Amino acid sequence: MAKFADVIVVVPGLIGSVLSKDKKDLWGTSPGALWRTIAGGAIDRLALQGLDDERDDLGDGVEATSLVENVEMIPGLWKQGGYSILDRKLVAGMSLDRGENYFEFPYDWRRSNRVSARKLTACVRKWLAAWKEKSGNQDAKVVFVVHSMGGLVARYHIECLDGWKTTRSLISFGTPYRGSGNALGFICNGFAWNIGPLKAFDGTNAIRSFDSVYQLLPTYPFVDAGESQLKRVSELDLPNLDRSRATRARAFHDEIAEAQERNRTVSGYATTVRPIVGIEQPTFQSAKLAGGTLSLLTSYEGEDTKGDQTVPRVSAIPYEVGQEAAVYIANTHSALQSDQTSDAQLRGILTEPTIDLRRFRADTIQLGRIGLHVDDAYSSTRPIVIEATASIYVQKIKASVCRLDAPGEISIVLWHSEGRYKKDLTLPAGLYRVETQEEGLHPASDVFLVADE
Protein backbone atom coordinates (compact mmCIF):
# COMPACT_ATOMS: atom_id res chain seq x y z
CA MET A 1 0.00 0.00 0.00
CA ALA A 2 1.28 3.47 -0.92
CA LYS A 3 2.15 5.82 1.92
CA PHE A 4 -0.87 7.82 3.05
CA ALA A 5 -0.33 11.35 1.78
CA ASP A 6 -1.95 13.33 4.61
CA VAL A 7 -1.68 13.55 8.39
CA ILE A 8 -4.38 11.82 10.46
CA VAL A 9 -5.22 13.28 13.87
CA VAL A 10 -7.50 11.43 16.32
CA VAL A 11 -9.44 13.59 18.79
CA PRO A 12 -11.31 11.70 21.56
CA GLY A 13 -14.55 12.58 23.30
CA LEU A 14 -15.56 13.55 26.81
CA ILE A 15 -13.60 11.48 29.42
CA GLY A 16 -11.52 10.06 26.55
CA SER A 17 -8.19 11.54 27.67
CA VAL A 18 -6.08 10.49 30.65
CA LEU A 19 -5.75 13.35 33.15
CA SER A 20 -2.69 13.39 35.40
CA LYS A 21 -1.25 15.54 38.18
CA ASP A 22 2.24 15.27 39.63
CA LYS A 23 2.82 12.25 37.35
CA LYS A 24 -0.11 10.38 38.92
CA ASP A 25 -3.24 9.56 36.97
CA LEU A 26 -6.39 11.21 38.26
CA TRP A 27 -8.27 9.70 35.34
CA GLY A 28 -6.52 6.46 34.46
CA THR A 29 -6.19 3.93 31.69
CA SER A 30 -6.12 0.58 33.47
CA PRO A 31 -9.32 -1.50 33.34
CA GLY A 32 -11.78 -0.17 35.91
CA ALA A 33 -9.66 2.86 36.72
CA LEU A 34 -12.42 5.30 35.91
CA TRP A 35 -14.90 3.40 38.05
CA ARG A 36 -12.47 3.45 40.99
CA THR A 37 -12.00 7.17 40.46
CA ILE A 38 -15.72 7.74 40.76
CA ALA A 39 -16.44 5.25 43.55
CA GLY A 40 -13.54 6.56 45.60
CA GLY A 41 -14.77 10.12 45.36
CA ALA A 42 -11.72 11.21 43.38
CA ILE A 43 -13.90 12.84 40.75
CA ASP A 44 -14.30 15.76 43.16
CA ARG A 45 -10.60 16.50 42.67
CA LEU A 46 -11.34 17.16 39.02
CA ALA A 47 -13.97 19.83 39.74
CA LEU A 48 -13.15 23.29 38.39
CA GLN A 49 -13.13 26.08 40.93
CA GLY A 50 -15.25 28.96 39.65
CA LEU A 51 -16.05 29.79 36.06
CA ASP A 52 -13.70 28.72 33.28
CA ASP A 53 -12.13 31.98 32.06
CA GLU A 54 -10.73 30.08 29.04
CA ARG A 55 -7.08 30.91 29.72
CA ASP A 56 -4.71 28.30 28.33
CA ASP A 57 -3.48 27.08 31.73
CA LEU A 58 -5.55 27.01 34.91
CA GLY A 59 -2.43 26.47 36.99
CA ASP A 60 -3.93 23.48 38.81
CA GLY A 61 -1.26 21.06 37.58
CA VAL A 62 -3.74 18.85 35.72
CA GLU A 63 -2.64 17.83 32.23
CA ALA A 64 -3.87 15.47 29.53
CA THR A 65 -1.21 12.85 28.75
CA SER A 66 -2.73 10.21 26.45
CA LEU A 67 -5.96 8.69 25.17
CA VAL A 68 -7.99 6.24 27.24
CA GLU A 69 -7.21 2.86 25.69
CA ASN A 70 -9.50 0.41 27.44
CA VAL A 71 -13.23 -0.05 27.58
CA GLU A 72 -14.53 1.96 30.52
CA MET A 73 -17.94 2.57 32.04
CA ILE A 74 -19.15 5.19 34.45
CA PRO A 75 -22.71 4.16 35.28
CA GLY A 76 -25.24 6.87 34.60
CA LEU A 77 -22.66 9.25 33.12
CA TRP A 78 -20.81 7.95 30.10
CA LYS A 79 -19.52 4.80 28.48
CA GLN A 80 -16.22 4.79 26.67
CA GLY A 81 -15.20 2.11 24.22
CA GLY A 82 -11.56 3.09 24.39
CA TYR A 83 -9.39 4.09 21.44
CA SER A 84 -6.89 1.24 21.15
CA ILE A 85 -9.04 -0.53 18.54
CA LEU A 86 -9.37 2.64 16.47
CA ASP A 87 -5.61 3.15 16.74
CA ARG A 88 -4.93 -0.32 15.33
CA LYS A 89 -7.46 0.14 12.53
CA LEU A 90 -5.83 3.33 11.35
CA VAL A 91 -2.14 2.59 11.86
CA ALA A 92 -2.20 -0.94 10.45
CA GLY A 93 -5.08 -0.53 7.99
CA MET A 94 -3.70 2.65 6.40
CA SER A 95 0.04 1.92 6.91
CA LEU A 96 0.54 5.02 9.02
CA ASP A 97 3.59 5.93 11.08
CA ARG A 98 3.03 7.16 14.63
CA GLY A 99 4.63 10.50 15.23
CA GLU A 100 4.91 11.19 11.50
CA ASN A 101 1.52 11.09 9.78
CA TYR A 102 -0.53 9.72 12.67
CA PHE A 103 -1.15 11.56 15.94
CA GLU A 104 -3.52 11.39 18.89
CA PHE A 105 -4.60 14.58 20.63
CA PRO A 106 -5.42 14.20 24.34
CA TYR A 107 -6.94 17.27 25.99
CA ASP A 108 -8.40 18.42 29.31
CA TRP A 109 -12.04 17.58 28.62
CA ARG A 110 -13.23 19.54 31.67
CA ARG A 111 -12.35 22.82 29.99
CA SER A 112 -14.13 24.91 27.39
CA ASN A 113 -13.71 23.41 23.93
CA ARG A 114 -12.28 26.74 22.78
CA VAL A 115 -9.23 26.13 25.00
CA SER A 116 -8.73 22.63 23.62
CA ALA A 117 -9.16 23.88 20.04
CA ARG A 118 -6.41 26.47 20.49
CA LYS A 119 -4.03 23.78 21.71
CA LEU A 120 -5.06 21.55 18.82
CA THR A 121 -4.25 24.36 16.37
CA ALA A 122 -0.73 24.73 17.76
CA CYS A 123 -0.10 20.97 17.55
CA VAL A 124 -1.50 20.60 14.03
CA ARG A 125 0.69 23.37 12.64
CA LYS A 126 3.79 21.67 14.03
CA TRP A 127 2.82 18.15 12.96
CA LEU A 128 1.83 19.15 9.42
CA ALA A 129 4.98 21.21 8.84
CA ALA A 130 7.17 18.30 9.95
CA TRP A 131 5.31 15.83 7.71
CA LYS A 132 5.58 18.08 4.66
CA GLU A 133 9.32 18.33 5.17
CA LYS A 134 9.79 14.59 5.72
CA SER A 135 7.46 13.36 2.97
CA GLY A 136 8.19 16.09 0.46
CA ASN A 137 4.44 16.39 -0.14
CA GLN A 138 3.75 20.11 0.07
CA ASP A 139 0.09 19.47 -0.73
CA ALA A 140 -0.43 17.38 2.41
CA LYS A 141 -3.30 18.35 4.69
CA VAL A 142 -4.89 17.05 7.89
CA VAL A 143 -7.67 14.48 8.19
CA PHE A 144 -9.42 14.52 11.57
CA VAL A 145 -10.92 11.29 12.90
CA VAL A 146 -12.95 12.33 15.94
CA HIS A 147 -15.29 10.81 18.47
CA SER A 148 -18.12 12.53 20.34
CA MET A 149 -17.13 15.91 21.81
CA GLY A 150 -13.78 15.70 20.04
CA GLY A 151 -15.67 16.72 16.91
CA LEU A 152 -16.62 20.04 18.52
CA VAL A 153 -12.97 20.69 19.37
CA ALA A 154 -11.92 19.97 15.79
CA ARG A 155 -14.81 21.98 14.33
CA TYR A 156 -13.84 25.07 16.31
CA HIS A 157 -10.25 24.67 15.11
CA ILE A 158 -11.40 24.28 11.50
CA GLU A 159 -14.00 27.04 11.28
CA CYS A 160 -12.96 29.61 13.90
CA LEU A 161 -9.16 29.31 13.96
CA ASP A 162 -8.50 29.08 10.20
CA GLY A 163 -7.93 25.32 10.40
CA TRP A 164 -9.90 24.84 7.18
CA LYS A 165 -6.88 26.08 5.26
CA THR A 166 -4.95 22.93 6.20
CA THR A 167 -7.83 20.45 6.66
CA ARG A 168 -8.76 17.82 4.08
CA SER A 169 -11.73 16.31 5.90
CA LEU A 170 -13.39 15.65 9.24
CA ILE A 171 -14.69 12.13 9.93
CA SER A 172 -16.83 12.14 13.06
CA PHE A 173 -18.19 9.27 15.15
CA GLY A 174 -21.24 10.37 17.10
CA THR A 175 -20.33 14.04 17.47
CA PRO A 176 -23.20 15.99 19.12
CA TYR A 177 -23.13 18.90 16.68
CA ARG A 178 -26.57 19.96 18.00
CA GLY A 179 -26.05 18.75 21.55
CA SER A 180 -27.09 15.83 23.74
CA GLY A 181 -30.02 15.45 26.12
CA ASN A 182 -27.81 13.47 28.49
CA ALA A 183 -25.81 16.61 29.29
CA LEU A 184 -28.99 18.45 30.21
CA GLY A 185 -29.97 15.59 32.49
CA PHE A 186 -26.61 15.65 34.29
CA ILE A 187 -26.87 19.36 35.00
CA CYS A 188 -30.54 19.58 35.92
CA ASN A 189 -31.05 16.25 37.67
CA GLY A 190 -27.54 15.56 38.90
CA PHE A 191 -25.19 12.62 38.57
CA ALA A 192 -25.58 10.13 41.41
CA TRP A 193 -25.69 6.36 41.15
CA ASN A 194 -25.77 3.24 43.27
CA ILE A 195 -26.27 -0.46 42.75
CA GLY A 196 -27.72 -2.85 45.28
CA PRO A 197 -25.86 -2.61 48.59
CA LEU A 198 -22.97 -0.59 47.18
CA LYS A 199 -22.71 2.88 48.59
CA ALA A 200 -24.05 5.60 46.31
CA PHE A 201 -21.68 8.22 45.03
CA ASP A 202 -22.41 11.70 43.77
CA GLY A 203 -20.33 13.49 41.16
CA THR A 204 -22.89 16.21 40.51
CA ASN A 205 -20.76 19.14 41.69
CA ALA A 206 -17.85 18.13 39.48
CA ILE A 207 -20.00 17.56 36.40
CA ARG A 208 -21.76 20.91 36.82
CA SER A 209 -18.40 22.70 37.05
CA PHE A 210 -17.27 21.61 33.56
CA ASP A 211 -17.86 24.17 30.80
CA SER A 212 -17.50 21.31 28.32
CA VAL A 213 -20.69 19.69 29.64
CA TYR A 214 -22.57 22.97 29.17
CA GLN A 215 -21.28 23.08 25.58
CA LEU A 216 -22.91 19.67 25.06
CA LEU A 217 -26.38 21.03 25.85
CA PRO A 218 -28.96 20.74 23.03
CA THR A 219 -28.92 23.80 20.77
CA TYR A 220 -32.29 23.25 19.08
CA PRO A 221 -35.76 23.70 20.65
CA PHE A 222 -35.71 20.84 23.15
CA VAL A 223 -37.88 21.49 26.23
CA ASP A 224 -41.67 21.35 26.51
CA ALA A 225 -42.45 23.92 29.20
CA GLY A 226 -46.22 23.80 28.65
CA GLU A 227 -46.22 26.46 25.95
CA SER A 228 -47.31 26.25 22.32
CA GLN A 229 -43.89 25.17 21.11
CA LEU A 230 -40.64 23.71 22.41
CA LYS A 231 -38.04 26.08 23.84
CA ARG A 232 -34.26 26.11 23.73
CA VAL A 233 -32.40 25.40 26.95
CA SER A 234 -30.99 28.92 27.09
CA GLU A 235 -34.50 30.40 26.89
CA LEU A 236 -35.76 28.81 30.12
CA ASP A 237 -35.06 28.79 33.83
CA LEU A 238 -34.46 25.09 34.48
CA PRO A 239 -33.65 23.38 37.79
CA ASN A 240 -29.96 23.62 38.80
CA LEU A 241 -28.99 25.07 35.43
CA ASP A 242 -26.99 28.31 35.26
CA ARG A 243 -28.79 30.10 32.46
CA SER A 244 -25.93 32.54 31.83
CA ARG A 245 -23.54 29.61 31.30
CA ALA A 246 -26.07 27.94 29.01
CA THR A 247 -26.26 31.16 26.98
CA ARG A 248 -22.46 31.29 26.69
CA ALA A 249 -22.42 27.64 25.64
CA ARG A 250 -24.99 28.38 22.94
CA ALA A 251 -22.74 31.22 21.75
CA PHE A 252 -19.95 28.66 21.25
CA HIS A 253 -22.10 26.78 18.72
CA ASP A 254 -23.31 30.01 17.09
CA GLU A 255 -19.70 31.10 16.64
CA ILE A 256 -18.90 27.90 14.74
CA ALA A 257 -22.02 28.20 12.55
CA GLU A 258 -21.38 31.85 11.69
CA ALA A 259 -17.72 31.17 10.91
CA GLN A 260 -18.64 28.26 8.65
CA GLU A 261 -21.13 30.43 6.80
CA ARG A 262 -18.38 33.01 6.14
CA ASN A 263 -15.69 30.47 5.31
CA ARG A 264 -17.69 28.62 2.68
CA THR A 265 -17.78 31.76 0.52
CA VAL A 266 -14.00 32.12 0.60
CA SER A 267 -12.01 30.90 -2.35
CA GLY A 268 -10.19 27.69 -1.42
CA TYR A 269 -12.61 26.53 1.28
CA ALA A 270 -13.27 22.85 0.62
CA THR A 271 -13.33 21.01 3.96
CA THR A 272 -15.42 17.83 3.77
CA VAL A 273 -17.38 16.59 6.80
CA ARG A 274 -18.34 12.90 6.87
CA PRO A 275 -20.48 12.10 9.92
CA ILE A 276 -20.74 8.49 11.09
CA VAL A 277 -24.05 8.30 12.93
CA GLY A 278 -25.29 5.78 15.47
CA ILE A 279 -28.91 4.72 15.01
CA GLU A 280 -31.60 2.34 16.32
CA GLN A 281 -30.73 2.93 20.00
CA PRO A 282 -33.14 4.49 22.55
CA THR A 283 -31.94 8.07 22.96
CA PHE A 284 -33.17 11.17 24.79
CA GLN A 285 -34.47 13.59 22.13
CA SER A 286 -36.46 16.16 24.11
CA ALA A 287 -37.53 17.01 27.64
CA LYS A 288 -40.62 18.08 29.57
CA LEU A 289 -40.67 20.59 32.42
CA ALA A 290 -43.57 20.18 34.83
CA GLY A 291 -43.88 21.15 38.48
CA GLY A 292 -40.24 22.24 38.60
CA THR A 293 -39.05 18.78 37.48
CA LEU A 294 -37.33 18.07 34.19
CA SER A 295 -38.02 14.69 32.56
CA LEU A 296 -36.08 13.47 29.51
CA LEU A 297 -38.06 11.85 26.68
CA THR A 298 -37.05 9.32 24.01
CA SER A 299 -39.10 11.09 21.36
CA TYR A 300 -39.40 14.49 19.70
CA GLU A 301 -42.91 15.88 19.35
CA GLY A 302 -44.22 12.33 19.51
CA GLU A 303 -41.79 10.86 16.97
CA ASP A 304 -38.91 8.58 17.94
CA THR A 305 -36.00 8.85 15.49
CA LYS A 306 -33.63 7.22 18.02
CA GLY A 307 -29.86 7.72 17.98
CA ASP A 308 -26.84 6.09 19.63
CA GLN A 309 -28.10 6.23 23.27
CA THR A 310 -26.22 9.49 23.87
CA VAL A 311 -26.50 11.59 20.71
CA PRO A 312 -29.81 11.83 18.84
CA ARG A 313 -29.63 10.85 15.18
CA VAL A 314 -30.49 14.40 14.11
CA SER A 315 -27.73 15.87 16.29
CA ALA A 316 -24.89 13.82 14.82
CA ILE A 317 -25.05 15.64 11.46
CA PRO A 318 -23.82 19.27 11.16
CA TYR A 319 -26.30 21.93 10.06
CA GLU A 320 -24.67 22.57 6.69
CA VAL A 321 -24.21 18.89 5.77
CA GLY A 322 -26.95 16.93 4.03
CA GLN A 323 -28.01 13.50 5.27
CA GLU A 324 -26.65 11.94 2.09
CA ALA A 325 -23.13 12.54 3.46
CA ALA A 326 -23.79 10.45 6.58
CA VAL A 327 -22.83 6.84 7.22
CA TYR A 328 -25.08 4.94 9.63
CA ILE A 329 -24.09 2.26 12.12
CA ALA A 330 -26.69 0.52 14.29
CA ASN A 331 -24.62 0.68 17.45
CA THR A 332 -24.21 2.65 20.66
CA HIS A 333 -22.22 5.82 21.24
CA SER A 334 -19.39 4.15 23.12
CA ALA A 335 -18.91 1.49 20.43
CA LEU A 336 -19.12 3.50 17.20
CA GLN A 337 -15.38 3.99 16.74
CA SER A 338 -14.75 0.32 17.59
CA ASP A 339 -17.62 -1.21 15.61
CA GLN A 340 -16.55 -3.98 13.22
CA THR A 341 -18.10 -2.20 10.25
CA SER A 342 -16.38 1.11 11.00
CA ASP A 343 -13.07 -0.33 9.77
CA ALA A 344 -14.35 -0.59 6.21
CA GLN A 345 -16.17 2.76 6.48
CA LEU A 346 -13.00 4.53 7.58
CA ARG A 347 -10.76 3.04 4.93
CA GLY A 348 -13.36 3.67 2.26
CA ILE A 349 -13.66 7.34 3.15
CA LEU A 350 -9.92 7.85 3.60
CA THR A 351 -9.06 6.30 0.22
CA GLU A 352 -11.74 8.13 -1.79
CA PRO A 353 -9.34 10.86 -3.01
CA THR A 354 -7.15 8.21 -4.68
CA ILE A 355 -9.93 6.85 -6.92
CA ASP A 356 -11.28 8.73 -9.95
CA LEU A 357 -14.56 7.08 -10.88
CA ARG A 358 -14.63 8.91 -14.21
CA ARG A 359 -11.87 6.60 -15.43
CA PHE A 360 -14.26 3.66 -15.16
CA ARG A 361 -17.11 5.08 -17.23
CA ALA A 362 -17.82 3.34 -20.54
CA ASP A 363 -17.69 5.60 -23.56
CA THR A 364 -21.01 4.24 -24.79
CA ILE A 365 -22.93 5.54 -21.79
CA GLN A 366 -25.26 8.34 -22.77
CA LEU A 367 -24.69 11.07 -20.24
CA GLY A 368 -27.30 13.57 -19.22
CA ARG A 369 -26.78 17.17 -20.28
CA ILE A 370 -26.46 20.28 -18.13
CA GLY A 371 -27.42 23.80 -19.06
CA LEU A 372 -25.49 26.42 -17.07
CA HIS A 373 -27.11 29.78 -16.34
CA VAL A 374 -24.35 32.16 -15.28
CA ASP A 375 -24.18 35.93 -15.84
CA ASP A 376 -21.04 37.45 -17.32
CA ALA A 377 -20.44 39.73 -14.33
CA TYR A 378 -21.54 40.11 -10.72
CA SER A 379 -21.03 42.56 -7.89
CA SER A 380 -18.82 41.48 -4.99
CA THR A 381 -21.29 43.06 -2.57
CA ARG A 382 -24.30 41.05 -3.67
CA PRO A 383 -25.16 37.33 -3.74
CA ILE A 384 -24.10 35.47 -6.88
CA VAL A 385 -26.74 33.10 -8.20
CA ILE A 386 -25.48 30.08 -10.15
CA GLU A 387 -28.24 28.09 -11.82
CA ALA A 388 -28.41 25.01 -14.02
CA THR A 389 -30.90 22.74 -15.73
CA ALA A 390 -30.47 19.03 -16.46
CA SER A 391 -31.90 16.78 -19.16
CA ILE A 392 -32.45 14.05 -16.56
CA TYR A 393 -33.53 14.44 -12.96
CA VAL A 394 -30.87 14.25 -10.26
CA GLN A 395 -31.19 15.32 -6.65
CA LYS A 396 -28.27 17.74 -6.83
CA ILE A 397 -25.43 18.88 -9.05
CA LYS A 398 -21.91 19.08 -7.67
CA ALA A 399 -19.65 21.78 -9.03
CA SER A 400 -16.46 23.69 -8.33
CA VAL A 401 -15.71 27.39 -8.55
CA CYS A 402 -12.07 28.11 -9.42
CA ARG A 403 -10.35 31.48 -9.12
CA LEU A 404 -8.48 32.11 -12.39
CA ASP A 405 -6.54 35.23 -11.48
CA ALA A 406 -5.33 33.93 -8.10
CA PRO A 407 -5.07 30.56 -6.27
CA GLY A 408 -8.22 29.12 -4.83
CA GLU A 409 -11.07 26.70 -5.48
CA ILE A 410 -14.28 25.90 -3.62
CA SER A 411 -16.72 23.02 -3.96
CA ILE A 412 -20.41 23.83 -4.16
CA VAL A 413 -23.69 21.94 -4.54
CA LEU A 414 -26.61 23.15 -6.65
CA TRP A 415 -29.87 21.88 -5.16
CA HIS A 416 -33.06 21.25 -7.09
CA SER A 417 -35.71 23.92 -6.64
CA GLU A 418 -38.71 24.71 -8.85
CA GLY A 419 -37.31 23.01 -11.95
CA ARG A 420 -33.78 24.38 -11.65
CA TYR A 421 -30.64 23.70 -9.65
CA LYS A 422 -29.47 26.74 -7.70
CA LYS A 423 -26.68 27.94 -5.45
CA ASP A 424 -26.20 31.40 -3.92
CA LEU A 425 -22.73 32.47 -2.81
CA THR A 426 -20.63 35.57 -2.25
CA LEU A 427 -17.16 35.91 -3.78
CA PRO A 428 -14.46 38.57 -3.67
CA ALA A 429 -13.61 40.49 -6.84
CA GLY A 430 -11.84 38.34 -9.42
CA LEU A 431 -12.18 36.15 -12.50
CA TYR A 432 -13.77 32.71 -11.96
CA ARG A 433 -14.69 29.49 -13.73
CA VAL A 434 -17.56 27.28 -12.60
CA GLU A 435 -17.49 23.63 -13.67
CA THR A 436 -20.06 20.94 -12.94
CA GLN A 437 -18.84 17.50 -11.81
CA GLU A 438 -21.97 15.43 -11.19
CA GLU A 439 -21.69 11.73 -12.07
CA GLY A 440 -24.06 10.75 -14.89
CA LEU A 441 -24.16 14.29 -16.31
CA HIS A 442 -21.80 15.63 -18.93
CA PRO A 443 -19.59 18.35 -17.40
CA ALA A 444 -20.35 21.96 -18.25
CA SER A 445 -18.36 25.08 -17.42
CA ASP A 446 -18.43 28.83 -17.83
CA VAL A 447 -16.45 31.86 -16.71
CA PHE A 448 -17.66 35.01 -15.00
CA LEU A 449 -16.30 38.18 -13.46
CA VAL A 450 -16.88 39.48 -9.95
CA ALA A 451 -16.14 43.19 -9.60
CA ASP A 452 -16.27 45.80 -6.87
CA GLU A 453 -19.03 48.30 -7.43
Model description:
The chain has 453 residues and is α/β, with parallel strands linked by helices. It folds into 2 domains: 319 residues, Alpha/Beta hydrolase fold, catalytic domain (Rossmann fold), CATH 3.40.50; 82 residues, Immunoglobulin-like. Helices cover 23% and strands 26% of the residues. The protein is built from 9 helices and 24 strands. An 8-stranded mixed β-sheet has the order 17-19-22-21-20-23-24-18, with no helix packed on it. The protein has a 6-stranded parallel β-sheet with strand order 7-1-8-9-13-16, sandwiched between helices. α3 crosses α4 and α4 packs across α8. The longest helix has 23 residues. The protein is globular. The termini are far apart. The model has no long low-confidence stretch (mean pLDDT 86).
